Amino acid sequence: MNVAACYxxxxxxxxxxxxxxxxxxxxNGRVFLVDAFHxxxxxxxxxxxxxxxGFYLINVGYIALALKTSEPLSTLxxxxxxxxxxxxxxxxxxxxxxxxxxxxxAKMRSRSGLAQAAPPPPRIA
Length: 125
Hints:
Layout: H1 3-36, H2 41-65, H3 76-116
Helix pairs in contact: 1-2, 1-3, 2-3
């Protein structure tokens, strides 16, 4: 099995998945960010764009680092197994980053909701 063909296949699949996830999160995350930033659409769009850039940098950087292999690929099965492990790790990283971002913005939202809530009634002694 040609190692270069395995590398190109891994790069194509991993980068395509990263682009698809980034576009999906960018498009569907806007509403969530606008709500988290209390309707400030300009700030939400800016943060959304910065998140996508960071997302690309981290994921494409990992994809490049994980490209190298020292395993011999003498059969198609070995190549498929190697690619499945590498792509599986990329998918786990994409999912982990997604849930981390959701967690951070959910905490931001709940903190801002607490700040806007009415103060508690005075205690009667």
